[in-house]
Amino acid sequence: MKTEIEIAGVKWKNPVTVGSGTFGSGMEYGEFVDLSRLGAVTTKGVANIPWPGNPTPRVTEVYGGMLNAIGLQNPGIDVFCERDLKFLEDYDTRVIVNVCGKSIQDYVDVVERLSDEKRVDMLEINVSCPNVKEGAIAFGQKTEALTEITKEIKKHAKQPVIMKLSPNVTDIAEMARAAEAAGADAISLINTITGMKIDISKRTFALANKTGGMSGPAIKPVAVRMVYQAAQAVKIPIIGMGGISTAEDALEFILAGATAVAVGAANFVNPYATIEVIEGIEDYMRRNKVEDIKELIGAVK
Amino acid sequence: MKQKTSAVIISQKEIAPGIFDMLLKTDLAKEAHAGQFVGVYPHDKSTLLPRPISICEADSENASLRLVYRVAGKGTAEFSKCSAGDSLDIIGILGNGYDIRPLLEKKIVLMGGGIGIPPMLELAKELKAHGTEAVSVLGYRDSQTFLKEDFEESSKLYIASEDGSVGTKGNVMNAMEAEGLVADIICACGPMPMLRAIKKYAAEKGIPAYISLEEHMACGVGACLGCVVKTKEIDHHSHVNNARICTDGPVFLAEDVEI
Ligand SMILES: Cc1cc2nc3c(=O)[nH]c(=O)nc-3n(C[C@H](O)[C@H](O)[C@H](O)COP(=O)(O)OP(=O)(O)OC[C@H]3O[C@@H](n4cnc5c(N)ncnc54)[C@H](O)[C@@H]3O)c2cc1C
Ligand SMILES: Cc1cc2nc3c(=O)[nH]c(=O)nc-3n(C[C@H](O)[C@H](O)[C@H](O)COP(=O)(O)O)c2cc1C
Ligand code: FES
């Protein structure tokens, strides 16, 4: 039985990674799971300089999910390389570094800084964070802007580039095609869906940022639909995510056309979720006599 | 080692209107200390996130954790309907808690306000077990003085009540003044206005005050950066002026945080 997959020439031992920002750099969840069992660890978005993020409350629960407006707090690329990448050296897993910025130059700075880092296997470019006022999401919502930033990053990147798409668009297929045409090696989706919650007793917004990105089980049908539409539109591999908490959820994404999947907010609900998803996929393959996971990718009829 | 585990409820009772006292059987009790907390998961899958609840008492011999909580919303309402024999999933032990060594043989005043009272009990007990009897100053709304006897057993107790029905009329600061209490160190948990008053008082007196902070949390383990508080200095982990309440706290030295 083969669970190995390949994205842009990078082999993963299994198709399971984590959603950026839901797993830190693996340090915190390393107490719960053996990181070497994961196909890849995707790290929290990192910028060229430290970002303080948004005021609190930054997280709140909604029916079947949550909203977050962390605002991409991060320690900056220097600390990230010295501490987080060094920590990951001890694990036998792929490392995907999620990159954020406010201008194209910010992204390019980070990508260049990472070009000599041996521990980085892939780059994931977050052009879709709904919680940062300037820049960021604009790149992910207009095809022209997405094309421009993808091309620019591809010029400077040494590692394969995954463009992370926003679900907050009218036509996801069009965005996927733009990323592919501009040279992206892969795409990942979905990032969070912009939402809002109001506290009726205080008559205030539940989040200081007013809006936040929704994630968790409640967004899964939207995510599966978008992964399917993207898979129909492009040939490059897709990393699917959005509400995955079980192997059954993950298999829906794979059948819809995802080569790999990411477990996001489910880590908060069950810190062992990644391992349970990996084992559950193996179990499904055994029960259904699937020899190679590749047989399942896009196999929905 | 932190873990998510299932814990059986040994007993649960309502000790004041809307305030519940729950005893859980779990080996996590062996690692639990004053100031730390656990995340308790509701069964209802529409409410996904763990509810942070402080350790009111940890008994490592009997592997039991005592949690005292107020029904505030959906999750705590669900917990309150559980009975002995039911199980709950919990994640823990979370947070840094108190380092009690620097507190020993000092004049310690423990201050608890409202639902901030329960976490001070384990601290009073740990101090007493190490031979230091603390002074507790607890602020209640009215005569529903939950946990009063427990605090009397392990500390010298003073009470304030908002309606004046028990002890000093007013808040914990009023009681402190009325009773002429002096402290080398203050440890406190309670509503934000109380913590701000304590921070100011401690700065004026030039004494350290350790305060327990609260913020909405998602992961509880330091990964999501949801639960931060502004810090005076650049934080060692985040490299910005933000510390994670779930891991770098919930107990902070008041002068280190901007509240
Ligand atoms: C470190 C820490 C220790 C705590 N210890 C205790 C304790 O010992 N006893 C006690 O009664 N309460 C305690 N609280 C507050 C308690 O966590 C909330 O009252 C509880 O989460 C409310 O959940 P709910 O589902 O009933 O309310 P809902 O309003 O339905 O909750 C919705 C979401 O908001 C979160 N939330 C709501 N209020 C708070 C709050 N005040 N702080 C943090 N998250 C909140 C919930 O966890 C949940 O994710 C503590 C909070 C923190 C951060
Ligand atoms: C607390 C939190 C922080 C996140 N931070 C990032 C981030 O830094 N970069 C990014 O590209 N996506 C970020 N995301 C989005 C997730 O990676 C993922 O795309 C999204 O949550 C949907 O998956 P889920 O429903 O499984 O959580 C974050 C999500 C959450 C909940
Ligand atoms: S709750 Fe996630 S970092 Fe504190």
Number of helices of chain A: 9
What is the number of independent domains of chain B? 2
CATH superfamily of the largest domain in chain B: Nucleotide-binding domain of ferredoxin-NADP reductase (FNR) module
- Widest sheet of chain A: strand order? 3-16-15-10-9-8-7-4
**Average pLDDT number of chain B:** 96
Spatial arrangement of strands, main beta sheet of chain B: 4-3-7-1-2-6-5
The most extensive interface between chains reads: A-B, 39 and 34 residues
What share of residues are in beta strands of chain B? 35-45%
CATH architecture of the largest domain in chain B: 3-Layer(aba) Sandwich
Pick out the low-confidence regions of chain A. Answer: none
- The CATH class assignment of chain A is Alpha Beta
Count of folded domains of chain A: 1
Describe the protein.
The complex is a heterodimer of chains A (301) and B (259). Chain A is α/β, with parallel strands linked by helices and 301 residues long. Chain A has one domain: Aldolase class I (TIM Barrel), CATH 3.20.20.70. Chain A is built from nine helices and 16 strands. Chain A has an eight-stranded parallel β-sheet. Chain A has a four-stranded antiparallel β-sheet with strand order 5-6-14-11, with no helix packed on it. In chain A, a hairpin with a 2-residue loop joins strand 1 and strand 2. In chain A, helix 4 runs parallel beside helix 5 (172-181), helix 6 (220-233) packs parallel to helix 7 and helix 7 crosses helix 9 (273-287). The two termini of chain A are 23 Å apart. The model of chain A has no long low-confidence stretch (mean pLDDT 95). Chain B is α/β, with parallel strands linked by helices and 259 residues long. Chain B folds into two domains: 3-94, Beta Barrel (Elongation Factor Tu (Ef-tu), domain 3), CATH 2.40.30.10; 101-214, Nucleotide-binding domain of ferredoxin-NADP reductase (FNR) module (Rossmann fold). Chain B has five helices and 17 strands. Chain B has helices at 74-80, 118-129, 148-154, 172-178, 192-205, and strands spanning 3-16, 19-25, 37-41, 51-54, 57-59, 64-70, 87-94, 108-113, 134-140, 155-161, 168-169, 185-189, 209-212, 228-231, 242-244, 251-253, 257-258. In chain B, helix 2 links the parallel strand 8 (108-113) and strand 9. Classes of the chains: A alpha/beta (301), B alpha/beta (259). The A-B interface holds A 21-24, 27-29, 31-32, 44, 50-53, 56-61, 63-66, 68, 70, 73, 75-76, 79, 216-217, 265, 267-272 and B 1-4, 41, 45-50, 91, 215-229, 237-242, 247. Residues 19-22, 44-45, 68, 70, 72, 98, 126, 129, 164, 191-192, 215-216, 219, 241-244, 264-266 of chain A line the site of flavin mononucleotide.
